[in-house]
Amino acid sequence: MQRRVLGLAIAVVTVAAAAGCGSSSGTGGASSAAGDKTTQVKVGIIPIVDVAPLYLGQQKGFFSSRGIDLKMETAQGGAAIIPGVVSGQFQFGFSNVTSLMIAQTKGVPIKSVVNGTASTGDTGKDISGVAVKEDSPIKSAKELAGKTVAVNTLQNIGDTTVREVVRKDGGDPSKVKFVEMPFDQMPAALDGGQVDAAWVGEPALTIAKGQGARVVASPFAETDPNLTIATYFASTKLAQENPDLVKKFTEAVTESLNYASEHPDEARQIVTTYTKIDGEVLKKLTLPTWPAEYDMASLEKLASLGEQDGIFGGQKPDLDALFS
Amino acid sequence: MSASGSTPVLTKPAGTATGPGGVGGGRVRRTLDRARTPLRGLAGLAGLVVLLEVLPHIGVVSADYLPPASEMGRALWQLLGEDAFWTALGDTLTGWGLGLAIAVVAGVVAGVVIGSAPVLRAVTASTIEFLRPIPSVALIPVAVLLYGTDLESKLLLVVYASFWQVLVQVLAGMQDVDPVAEDTARSYRMGSWGRVRYVLWPTALPYVMTGVRLAATVALVLTITAELVIGSPGLGNQLAVAQTSGAVPRVYALVLVTGLLGVAVNLVARAIERRALHWHQSMRREGQR
């Protein structure tokens, strides 16, 4: 369902971009004020742990010192964020890199501007994992072949990396049956036996573990220990017309990422201001790493996995254009 | 949306409104019944609460996924003490109220215009039937493209969904005008304003009211949906945050709030309907029951 909504969103955006509408009204609000004046910048985000550096940076004044009045717009996913960024309602958005590649191959005019989050690289203690019930016979990734695995979005970063770990472990990735459901429903689905395994992200992963689930694979860390997972992006129009704003935003985010990496406790603390994650869960959950730079090798890996699984509709994402 | 039972139907005025039970004994029983109805409603609710409390305790469902009613109540109590909750409630009610108002005004105006000209009615009929069933939710990407996550995108969805409810009812009402009354008005040489005021409006009003009542509920559903999916500020957004955070009792507490809001909306809509249509047969009968 989510994929269909995303697909529809991308279709609408493509049509609008091709027709040249939607962008006319967009840049008016934010980008015109380039001088000493404060510019309001809206960022479309998902209220998850990954965007903690942004809130931390806002609190520490990394954005206001550059004349950016940061405003977070929380959405449920790419279906709302990507059209918002393309039409100029948001200046920037947060998205996983596979979604960005899909959007690019469909002709959506967007461009990643600064890194977002990366895998911890620590197998068994990553920000996502394939969880099974305590008493499940599944012991390793290759045994997922022939089993039902839940992912939050089909044909995206979840199933491509899960297939990769199955492949690496010597299993047949084409035999894995994927079903789509939101992360927060996965612990219950595992417990009720609706799925054999679930690719779960934080905080649902910690919640599932607390209820006795066992992690049999860490697709991100096992695909590439330095895997770049999500980045902040802008429309190509904004990138061309207001490079100054993009530069300032990039600098502010970089400073925020560095600060969050150095002060993980503060990052964990700021999560309480924009989520309702239970205190005990928050203490235990795994934070992502927040490197300031992309890892191009890992992005190439993700792109080739996506091509292998045919999620780009036969096209090849242009990584240099997307992440330069 | 089983409102068909309550759709006011205009029957020709006859002595049947009083019904056969005009004797004293019947009246006493009716008064008792009247007192019992809300009590029965509350009993149903209490039964639900007990069921919600018992089910997790006896292990039919895990308390991790369906917390017992007492825990939901605690989360609800905590919620009521938060400023953010009241702001969200205000945002939701603003979106609902504005959306409903726009839809009702637009629906009534469009309905009267279309309904009074047979040509227009013929031309628009298929278009209306085509547009009406399109789920408002399908417009989310368009709404975000046009308005981002602001109030406007919420309004677009709410107005789109509730407009048709009103329009269709108004059109039905306009068609229901008694030809005898119409002819009578013409014989008395009433002007077009008089005909609208004394013939058309009283006929259409019960339909309009039904439309408004249906639209009020639909508008609430769409307001929450828009907040949930788009992320515009409001109860739906709070619900989404609680969901992604895995805060299960809070999710249910918010669901309870939206349910109560639905009950309140329906009660208010019914009260307004009863006042506006106190003269109407359906209401007179209901009042005497």
UniProtKB/TrEMBL annotation, chain A:
<comment type="similarity">
    <text>Belongs to the bacterial solute-binding protein SsuA/TauA family.</text>
</comment>
<feature type="signal peptide">
    <location>
        <begin position="1"/>
        <end position="18"/>
    </location>
</feature>
<protein>
    <submittedName>
        <fullName>Nitrate ABC transporter substrate-binding protein</fullName>
    </submittedName>
</protein>
<dbReference type="InterPro" id="IPR015168">
    <property type="entry name" value="SsuA/THI5"/>
</dbReference>
<dbReference type="Pfam" id="PF09084">
    <property type="entry name" value="NMT1"/>
</dbReference>
<keyword id="KW-0732">Signal</keyword>
<dbReference type="GO" id="GO:0042597">
    <property type="term" value="C:periplasmic space"/>
</dbReference>
<feature type="domain" description="SsuA/THI5-like">
    <location>
        <begin position="50"/>
        <end position="267"/>
    </location>
</feature>
